[in-house]
Every structure is written in structure tokens, then in C-alpha cells.
Amino acid sequence: FDDTELNTVYFFTVYPNTIIRKYDISEPGNTILLFEYTDLDGYSFLVKNGYGYLLNDVNNYQNLYILNGLYENTPYLANTIDHFSEYTWTALRSYNNYLGLFYCGHLDETKFFNLNDPLNPTFAFELAVPSNYAYPGIYDDIFFTSTWTSSYIYDISGNPSGILETIDNINGLAYIRSIDFYNSGENNYLFTIEESDIGVFEFSYNHSVDDEILNQDNIILNNYPNPFSTSTTISFSTASLRYATPRQAENAEIKIYNIKGQLVKNFELRILNSELIKVVWDGKDENGKQLPNGIYLCKLSVGKEAIVRKMILLR
């Protein structure tokens, strides 16, 4: 399954042979086989943005095979990364722009690889306390993992790297089978489906990406509408600037980042007088490409002052 490709579904069969099938399901009752791929063996497979990632055990380690051409229904092997994992019995999952590598059944490493170059995943970070019993659940870049009796919580916003430390944990659980979430108004709920119980936890959070803000009370930044579907108007008043010199105020800028801290759009502003400044963002990046739904961070910088506002793109 690939959430960027509509009306299609992928099936992956391990035994007795490795088979990858893609179907067109746009017409109910008239499923069409688009391709069947049998050239490689493997036991964990996922599709992300038109690329297929297949893990295969080879002499007590694992190779990663990367397929291209899935959207065109002509899959082919585009790259092989030998010794991608030093452990067997691992599995792949995707989270936003990361490829997750999970070690099933024993407490070893849980690693994440950046997919900026989809043909060459690069190591980004690993968890200080891995998840070894159920796959992690993610809620707005907050990871809830599971060991035998605890759920450890991580914040993966802001392009983390290296060993990622926990921000909190929940103890006293009993063999978590799966994790799920529910939102009601301003309340966030975590459900832990355990061996013989269901745990319900209310939680709140602040992303670490907001820590860089200098003086949020000094300037006022707004955007309307929020959430927005086609465009939003970002505005601030120069009358609220306290510490910027006239020269600094002349060269203010608004930068828009995705939730991972990657810059997607930049507005350079020329401020000549005390006035209300407005810019319109159409949800596209610097190249005019429409960005996906999600949370974006709008950062206004003027002189020594800066403020960030969260915006939600929802079509």
C-alpha cells in the first residue's frame, strides 16, 4: 500500500515464493492485476512514494533491495544495499520521510533512515530504548514504542540524529500488542492494546522544534484561515517590533518548514514603514510543487526577534 497512489493496492506473499502484486481497485468488483514481480526473495516489503523496499536474509545479515518503476507498473531492481542490517528477523515500516528498521522478538536496535534520496536511505537516528514487541505508534511526530512492560516516548520533530533519548515513558503495561490514538477536541488519547487489558492514557506535548523561538511575546504572527485547503494569509504588524533596528526591520523574512524542520518556502520582506505586512502562501514549495497535507511551521525573523506559528494544510 502506498498512500500517495490512489485506487491501488499491493500484496506481498512470502511463502512458498516471494511474490509482489499490484492491483487496480478503482472499480468495485472489477479488480485488475497490474503486475506480478517474482525476481527477488525477501520477507519484509513496503512501498513508499513509488519505490519498493524489500529485505532479505543472507548469511545471518540482511540486504535491502530497492525497486523503482512501481507507478509505471514495470518494477525493476534500482539499487542494492548489502549488509543493511547486521541482524536477521527484522521488519520495515515507514513513518513520514523515514524508513524504520525494527528487530522482532528481541531487544536490540530500532533504527530510522532518511528517505530524502529514496534510492540511498541514510542513517538518521536510533532509539535509546528500542521497541521490541509491537510496532511503534506515531501521533504528530511523537513516537510511542513498546517493550515487554513499558512504552517509551520520543519526539522526532526537528530532524533528529544519533541516539534519540526518551522524553517520557509509561510503566506497568503487560505485553503490548498494538498502539492506537484518538483525538477529541483538545484532548489526545493513547490506547495500548495489551495481552489481557486495554490501557487508556491522556497526553499533551510540545515539539522540541519550538525551542528555538526567542521572544514569542515581542511580536504577533497570525495566519487565516487555519487550517486551510488552498491558501492562507500570513500577517504581522511592524508596530509590535521592539528590538529590531530600522536596518534589520527592512530585511525581515518568513520561512516555512515542514514538521521535520526542512525549509519548503521562503518569503523575503521589505519593510519601509510601520505597517501591517501580509503574504499569501498557496501550500506549494519553492519549485511550485503542491505539498502534502500536514503541519507546517511558519517562522518570522526580524532583527533579534523570531516567532513560529503552526499552520495546518488540510484539503
Task: Name a few traits of the molecule.
4-stranded antiparallel sheet; 5-stranded mixed sheet; 315 residues
Could you characterize what this model shows?
The chain is mainly beta. The chain contains one helix and 26 strands. The protein has one helix at 246-249, and strands spanning 8-13, 19-24, 32-37, 44-48, 51-58, 61-68, 76-85, 90-95, 98-103, 110-114, 122-127, 137-139, 142-144, 151-155, 162-164, 168-170, 178-184, 187-193, 198-203, 221-224, 232-237, 251-258, 263-270, 276-281, 294-302, 305-313. A five-stranded mixed β-sheet has the order 8-9-10-11-15, with no helix packed on it. A hairpin with a 2-residue loop joins strand 17 (178-184) and strand 18 (187-193). The protein is globular and about 65 Å long. Residues 208-218 and 242-248 have low confidence and may be disordered.
Average pLDDT score:
81
Rg computed from alpha carbons, rounded to a whole number of angstroms: 23 Å
Rough outline: globular
Question: What series of H and E elements makes up the topology?
Answer: EEEEEEEEEEEEEEEEEEEEEHEEEEE
Mind describing the biggest β-sheet? Answer: 5 strands, mixed
Count the DSSP helices. 1
Helix proportion range? under 10%
- Termini Cα gap: 21 Å
Strand content: over 45%
Number of strands: 26
Structural category: mainly beta
* Biggest sheet: strand arrangement: 8-9-10-11-15
* Uncertain ranges: 208-218, 242-248
Oligomer: single chain
